[in-house]
Write a structure and sequence with these properties.
Ribosomal Protein S5, domain 2; five-stranded mixed beta sheet; 664 residues; binds adenosine-5'-triphosphate; alpha+beta; nine-stranded mixed beta sheet; Heat Shock Protein 90; unfolded protein binding; 4 domains; ATP-dependent protein folding chaperone; Rossmann fold; 38% helix
Length: 664
């Protein structure tokens, strides 16, 4: 169990326990969970122009409650007794100043009222509250940018407090002899629960005592237009009750059964918002019927904004499974974890209606559906990438880090996913390059797809390892998502070209011509003396480095560190070193740039009769410099400072008399 879920269920239990007590005493007051308090505070003080969204949220909850009852009634149809037509009814009462939203769905017991309407129900909510805290820190009263946050987050039941200064929830669980209860609150810190037989015979009645500035929500035309805009396609009919007369204002027809030609973008957007509990537009809509070995309909959406729970440790998706229009569960994990940001539903004609949620995991029919849907989503993403690269790039910037998890989790679809992957690269730091683009732009004699890793694109791009690649016009992919470290080690390549880190093994790029070789006089120092220097440096550094050698990957810097062939990437190693039980870090290779003035100068000294103690200091300084370029600090700052002082002193000393041996 993660920390959040642990906390959540603990607080749910406490709330449920105190509610249980509440039943024996007439009205008990309970404190809201701290996080709820924050959300409520936001709702009560909301200066949010779209506050009509509360109605969509309450209708959505009512419809969900009806769908849950429809599911349970398959095993026990007595649950529907006397009232089989599931509906959500909206009832404005101008005299009382109340707006009532009632459903005859599953209902809640007293315990459930306390647990569901006193604590945080959703996994993303914790992240929402954190985002809220950050906003509040920077804004007056926290309501300015908070409004934008409300818009990004499906706000749920608590949104009622945007328009009401008191909310009563009367509810009775479906089933024989269930007691009715009333939950009541002004949204300021506490709520009460008491037994109340005025609760509906089955389901939930939510009575909003509207604030003075929210009385326009009592107008029938206003309600109708909100329902048309936000709730026309919830899969349960909606009725409007004026006085004693009631009429249907939305028919509850399953939108996904309708042909695409009859549906507009607005219809899809509204339905997406209902099913995803979101407020953005879908960035991609996938709607189709599969016919063949089995028949099912699919309506899936890729959001245009990141859901708050995208990196929740549970990695669970929230797609819904229906069987012949009956909602079964949103926990069937229809999508592989790396597509968990996709929202929507599958409606199967062939699964048995009485399938239990437990049996779903083993169902071969469902396995087939899962496979078909994931393939289809990936192929639709691919089509979008071809047809509208900008729209696809937006999806990739939001969900690329999640999709990339598939590169090491889903071997079967790895090539498809590599085709969908986009990267920043040294050829285009802002935009997105595909591997196809990369391969097309490869230089003559280039044999591999090169990448550099770093904590940010800017940091990765500043790496000295890139110099030789830049000088040869070789494009390098910039990998800066934590997930990159994992897939890139396992990827076998793309289009027959292996992936290679620029900071690992032999750079292997000599065969690629320099873009501008006018500055290159072909003089690599004297190869013999650089080799002598390399041998001297290796002898001085001992086991600190595996090897010292001349480099092709450097152009401007004198030195750099690289990992040996087959070892872990140095950045990954450093990242892992912070964790417990990490493997010991392996000794790197120190590479010297034979064209660099400093290396040439030192090579000459190594070959001549110079002061070897000073050259040893310089050797260590070269190593320290390489560490610094690699983003690390010298491991022994005092020794580093000592060497630096001695070398600088020798530089500024007058004539090069035979130098006195330096004292260690
Ligand atoms: N009309 C209702 N009938 C039965 N249960 C309800 C009703 N309204 C709310 N609930 C319960 O209260 C919980 C919290 O509702 P809330 O709207 O805050 O979040 P949510 O509905 O879980 O989130 P989302 O809107 O994203 O599905 C629900 O999950 C549900 O269990």
């Amino acid at each position: 169990m993660t920390e959040t879920t642990e906390k959540k269920s603990a607080s749910r239990k406490t709330a449920a326990k105190s509610a249980g007590k509440g039943k024996s005493k007439p009205a008990t007051s309970h404190a809201f969970e701290a996080e709820v308090g924050k959300i409520l505070d936001l709702m009560v003080h909301a200066v949010y122009s779209d506050r009509e969204v509360f109605l969509r949220e309450l209708i959505s909850n009512g419809a969900d409650a009806c769908e849950k009852l429809r599911y349970e009634s398959r095993r026990d149809d007595s649950l529907l007794a006397g009232d089989p037509d599931l509906t959500v009814t909206i009832h404005p009462d101008k005299d009382a100043g109340t707006l009532t939203i009632e459903d005859n769905g599953i209902g809640m017991t007293g315990e459930e009222l306390a647990a569901n309407l006193g604590t945080i129900a959703r996994s993303g909510t914790q992240a929402f509250v954190e985002a809220l805290d950050n906003e509040a820190a920077g804004t007056e009263g926290g309501s300015g940018d908070a409004a934008a946050l409300i818009g990004r987050f499906g706000i749920g039941f608590y949104s009622a407090f945007m328009v009401a200064d008191r909310v009563d929830v009367l509810s009775r669980r479906a089933g024989k002899d269930q007691a009715g209860n009333r939950w009541s609150s002004d949204g300021r810190g506490t709520f009460g629960i008491e037994p109340d037989e005025l609760a509906p015979a089955r389901g939930t009645r939510i009575v909003l005592h509207l604030k003075d500035d929210a009385k326009d929500f009592l107008e029938a035309h206003r309600i109708e237009s909100i329902v048309r805009a936000h709730s026309a396609h919830v899969p349960v009919p909606i009725r409007l009750k004026e006085g004693e007369v009631s009429r249907e204002i939305a028919d509850g027809g399953a939108l996904w059964l309708k042909p695409k030609s009859e549906l507009s973008d607005e219809d899809y957007t509204e339905f997406y918002r209902h099913i995803a509990g979101a407020w953005d537009e879908p960035a991609l809509t996938v709607h189709y019927a599969a016919e063949g070995r089995q028949t099912y309909r699919v309506l899936m959406f890729v959001p245009s904004e990141k859901p708050f729970d995208m990196f929740d440790p549970s990695r669970k998706g929230r797609t819904r499974l229906y069987v012949r229009r009956v909602f079964i569960t949103d926990d069937a994990e229809l999508m592989p974890a790396y597509l968990r940001f996709v929202r929507g539903l599958v409606d199967s004609d062939d699964l048995p209606l009485n399938i239990s949620r437990e049996m779903l995991q083993e169902s071969p029919l469902l396995t087939q559906i899962r496979k078909g849907v994931a393939n289809r989503i990936l192929s639709e993403l691919g089509k979008l990438a071809d047809k509208d690269p900008d729209a696809y790039a937006k999806i990739w910037s939001n969900f690329g880090p999640v999709l990339k998890e598939g590169l090491y989790e889903d071997m079967e679809r790895r090539d498809t996913l590599l085709g969908l992957a986009r990267f920043h690269s040294t050829a285009d730091m802002e935009g997105w390059r595909s591997l196809k683009d990369y391969v097309a732009a490869m230089r003559e004699n280039q044999t591999a797809i090169y990448y550099v890793t770093g904590e940010s694109p800017a940091q990765a791009a500043a790496s000295p390892h890139l110099e030789g690649f830049r000088a040869r016009g070789i494009e390098v992919l910039v990998l800066s998502d934590p997930v990159d470290h994992f897939w890139v080690r396992m990827a076998t390549g793309f289009d027959g070209k292996p992936f290679r880190s620029v900071s690992q093994g032999d750079a292997d790029i000599e065969a690629v011509a320099l873009l501008d070789d006018s500055g290159d006089d072909g003089d690599d120092g004297s190869p013999a003396s650089v080799a002598t220097l390399a041998a001297f440096v290796k002898q001085t550094l001992g086991d600190t480095v595996k090897e010292v050698r001349t480099s092709t990957r450097l152009a401007e810097s004198p030195v750099c560190l690289v990992a040996t062939e087959g070892a872990l990437d140095r950045r990954l190693e450093r990242m892992l070193a912070k964790q417990e039980g990490a493997p010991e870090r392996s000794a790197p290779v120190l590479e010297l740039n034979p064209r660099h003035a400093l290396i040439r100068h030192l090579a000459a000294q190594a070959a001549g009769q110079s002061d070897k103690a000073l050259l040893a200091d310089a050797s260590w300084l070269l190593y320290d410099e390489a560490c610094i370029l690699d983003g690390e600090t010298p491991s022994d700052p005092a020794a580093f400072a000592g060497r630096l002082t001695r070398v600088l002193l020798a530089q500024s000393a007058p004539a090069p008399e035979p130098a006195a041996p330096t004292q260690e």
